[in-house]
Each structure stands twice: as C-alpha cells, then as structure tokens.
Amino acid sequence: MAILEKISTLSDMKVLMSELKRLKGKFVFDYYGVLQDFPSKKLFPQWLQKRSINNVFITDKGNALLAKVNDSKKMSLVLYDLETPDINGLQFLSELEKNPELGAKCKVILICPKLVPDAQTRILHLGAAALLFKPFSEDDLQKAFEKAGLDY
What we know:
The chain has 152 residues and is α/β, with parallel strands linked by helices. The chain has a single domain (30-147), classed as Rossmann fold (3-Layer(aba) Sandwich), CATH 3.40.50. It is built from 8 helices and 5 strands. It has a 5-stranded parallel β-sheet, sandwiched between helices.
C-alpha cells in the first residue's frame, strides 16, 4: 500500500508503469538457449547479463532444454538453433504444439541461416515468435526480442 501512497500524479503513474514494464521480462521469464556455434554460446549470456538478466540456461542439447522448460513454472523465452542435432528447431516447435500447456508458456526465437521468405513464413506459422539469422549481433537479438513482444 505504501507504494500507492507515493503515486500522486499522472507522471508518477507513468514512471511506475514504465518500471513495471521494464521489470516484467526480467522476473516473469526463464531464459534458455540451445546454441550450436561458439560465438553465440559466449555472447548471448553476456548480452543478457548486461541487462541484469541472470536466469539463463545454455545447452547444446534440445532434450535437456525441453526438460528444463517443462519443469519451469514461469514463462520461458527460448533461443533455439534450427540445426540442433538431437531435436532440430522444427521438431522442438512440433513438441510445443503437441503439448498446448507447454507451448502456451514458451516463446521461441529460432536461430537459423538466412531462409527464403516462404520458409520464414512457414516457420513463424509453426509457432516461432521470431527468427534470428546467423551470424547475429546484439542489435539483431534486440530486434528479435521486440518481434517476440518482449523488452530487451
């Protein structure tokens, strides 16, 4: 109740709403990455840590990630490499589709090589929230977060 007593103007309300929006992604989501190439394995956690996001799980095994996401009580943001050997990106999206409860709490940014527009459209229709093309920069990651409807 004390915080509500401090909000006395529209400006105070805007500041509160801005802060809640900024914090929403940091505490509501668990962050996962199935990354196949060394630069992204190293850079992705560093980029998130710059934004005080520390609940990051990185692996190169799709089965391990699927189990983690399944066990999570929070929403999950997953960066998933299309070319993951044990469960490729399309298979991962298919697993989420088979389990609607799991799919509803998981947003997937699919990392892939540059694809023709028709293939991009099909992957997005399968349930990917955004595509991130290799090689990618932190700016590209930010744009993918925004396409997935998340603050970065």
